[in-house]
């Protein structure tokens, strides 16, 4: 279940309470008159079944609470209550299949921002991939996949496309457009420095045939990217974040970027181009699959439950 907190003007409290009391999937309804200071007003709290949260938030936004007050959601790990059990039974659908769009927008919006942390993680991941390529260490390549933060912006692009949030699409695209080139430049500089001090030579790539999959772009590259993109978006929409680790170590985005940087510096042009192609195929495949998953979610929701307006926030 999710914990819902609503701050609203006192004159709207009755409407909010009535709405929540009539909404299926709501339990533990509490009203605290005058408890809110900024913005001033009453505070209303309730626990909401995940599968009912999206419709509940839409109804509250219809009352203008998001403009004059505030709405927050928190995940509840454990709820011991017969009332909560009844609320989950009354809520339509299944919690694992429910998409809380506002939660998804907030999560992907935060992970898609171009900031120092994103650039640092992506650069470190590319450098790790370069080390793995040069040393022939598959474990290091896998580590680079896990460290890479690129799935956040890719998921944000998919959410933005489905919800027609072009600001989110632009922000996520900017993060990728700046992040990958910068990380690859830093990796290229590191490769030049390592080669200059004699850590490795131009034969580093030709001797590691077990890593050819990194730049060997083909149908399987797209298939893996599509499956990983679908699994990643399902993980985000169902709050099963543990599955994201499997997504991270399935796609060849960061390894391809790191391989391309090393190949460029060492003069392996026959591997530089295919590495960039591998990167592009994986990025596009992930976005396409994630978008399709969200479209199917929305179609299923529209067919089996009442619709809700697109978010403007």
From TrEMBL:
The chain crosses the membrane at residues 114-135, 141-162, 174-197, 217-236, 243-269, 275-296. Pfam families: DUF389 (PF04087). The keyword Zinc does not apply. Keywords: Membrane, Transmembrane, Transmembrane helix. The keyword Transmembrane applies. This is DUF389 domain-containing protein.
């Amino acid at each position: 279940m999710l914990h819902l907190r609503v701050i609203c003007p006192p004159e709207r409290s009755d409407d909010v309470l009535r709405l929540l009391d009539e909404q299926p999937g709501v339990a533990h309804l509490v009203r605290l008159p005058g408890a809110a200071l900024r913005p001033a007003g009453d505070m209303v709290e309730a626990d909401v079944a995940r599968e009912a949260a999206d419709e509940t938030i839409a109804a509250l936004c219809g009352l203008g609470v998001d403009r004059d007050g505030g709405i927050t959601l928190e995940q509840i790990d454990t709820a011991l209550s017969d009332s909560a059990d009844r609320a989950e039974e009354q809520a339509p659908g299944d919690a694992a299949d429910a998409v809380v769009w506002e939660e998804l927008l907030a999560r992907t919006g935060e992970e898609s921002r171009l900031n120092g942390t994103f650039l640092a993680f992506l650069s470190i991941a590319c450098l790790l991939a370069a080390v793995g390529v040069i040393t022939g260490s598959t474990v290091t390549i896998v580590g680079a996949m896990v460290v890479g933060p690129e799935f956040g912006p890719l998921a944000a692009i998919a959410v933005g496309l489905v919800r027609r949030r072009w600001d989110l699409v632009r922000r996520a695209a900017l993060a990728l457009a700046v992040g990958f080139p910068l990380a690859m430049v830093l990796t290229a500089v590191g490769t030049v420095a390592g080669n200059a001090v004699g850590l490795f030579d131009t034969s580093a790539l030709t001797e590691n045939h077990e890593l050819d999959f990194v730049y060997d772009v083909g149908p399987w590259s797209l298939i893996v990217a599509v499956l990983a993109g679908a699994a990643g978006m399902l993980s985000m929409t169902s709050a099963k974040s543990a599955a994201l680790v499997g997504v991270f170590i399935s796609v060849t985005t960061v390894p391809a970027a790191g391989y391309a940087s090393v190949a460029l510096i060492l003069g392996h042009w026959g591997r530089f181009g295919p590495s960039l192609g591998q990167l592009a195929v994986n990025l596009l495949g992930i976005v396409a699959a994630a978008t399709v998953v969200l479209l199917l979610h929305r179609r299923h929701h529209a067919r089996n439950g009442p619709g809700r307006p697109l978010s403007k926030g």
